[in-house]
Design goal:
P-loop_NTPase; 13 helices; CbbQ/NirQ/NorQ/GpvN; 2 domains; about 325 residues; two-stranded antiparallel ribbon; ATP binding; ATP hydrolysis activity
């Protein structure tokens, strides 16, 4: 299937055979996948986070592993370790749980900062280093991490460096009453995920990722992105604004969005659509801003309203 829009639509519709009423969330996750980024899913238990990730892996025929993060999990459990092989007389690498294409990092904020840090290298460089040797993870590679926003006992807040490596942040949310009735009907006799078949493969996703990088970004769009990011660093209600990594992520997300819209060039609307999902989790509010009930989303909307929007002609 050479048409990117048709392929992405087929993947989305396949996932929606199981997941009801979450088209926008699925679309954002697919944008992150095409842009080569990772996803932070923050939501309450039971809304379908694990099911959504499983459906994604099945739809793309990719290898999938779920890592249940707990306080006693070790970095070596994630990355792997070397052990002595008595038959060969040599050290042998035992791959960790990260050696898969789709990783569900379940309740990532329940593990220690040391174990969280073991993900930094693999999320950025798609490789792990064990005893001085580097091992690449299979491609395409995406980490989808979940965390519960309401439970604080026994959790370790993700540090800024870890948050910055997540390309996008999404929230699934509760279904409407009508959507919940559809869910009950679908799951009444059996789990519909058991019948889910692949509609794409790894090579098709890798090809799409290359197409995303070739979507044209005009100088005026780059200046627009740079100005938006600069405003977050100068905002009076923020302790920490978006990093250069965040600016690159916003550009890449805009490219992926443009591709899904059938264009080979980015327009300001693409950037505006991606600003909140890509940048909101990277901002740190000042305590007094929180007291005023300010949020990262409100600040980003005010910045969008204040920055001049360039006119782009195809």
């Amino acid at each position: 299937m050479n048409n990117p829009q048709k392929l992405i639509k087929a993947i989305q519709e396949n996932i929606e055979k199981v997941i009801v009423g979450k088209s926008e969330v699925i679309r954002l996750i697919l944008i992150a996948l095409l842009a080569g980024g990772h996803v932070l899913i923050e939501d309450v238990p039971g809304v379908g986070k694990t099911t959504l990730v499983s459906c994604l892996a099945r739809s793309l025929n990719l290898s999938f592993k779920r890592i249940q993060f707990t306080p006693d999990i070790l970095p070596s459990d994630i990355t792997g370790f070397s052990m002595y092989n008595f038959k060969t007389g040599e050290m042998e690498f035992k791959p960790g749980m990260i050696m898969s294409q789709v990783i569900l990092a379940d309740e990532i904020n329940r593990t220690s900062p040391k174990t969280q840090a073991s993900l930094l290298e693999v999320m950025e460089e798609h490789q792990v280093t064990v005893d001085g040797k580097t091992y690449s993870v299979p491609q395409p590679f995406i980490v989808l991490a979940t965390q519960n926003p309401i439970e604080y006992i026994g959790t370790f807040p993700l540090p800024e460096a870890q948050l910055d490596r997540f390309f996008i942040k999404v929230s699934i949310g509760y279904p409407t009453k009508r959507e919940e009735m559809f869910i009950l009907s679908r799951f009444q006799t059996r789990n519909p995920m058991e019948d889910l078949k692949p509609v794409a493969d790894a090579q098709q996703i890798l090809d799409l990722q290359q197409q995303v990088r070739h979507v044209n970004v005009a100088e005026a769009i780059k200046e627009y992105i740079a100005e938006l990011v600069a405003c977050t660093r100068e905002h009076k209600d923020l302790t920490l604004g978006a990093s250069p990594r965040g600016a690159i992520a916003l550009m890449r997300a805009s490219q992926a969005y443009a591709l899904l819209e059938g264009r080979d060039y980015v327009i300001p609307d693409d950037v505006q659509k991606m600003v909140i999902p890509v940048l909101s989790h990277r901002l740190i509010l000042k305590p007094e801003a929180r007291l005023k009930e300010m949020t990262a989303e409100r600040i980003l909307r005010s910045i969008l309203n204040s920055v001049y929007v360039p006119v782009i002609r195809p």
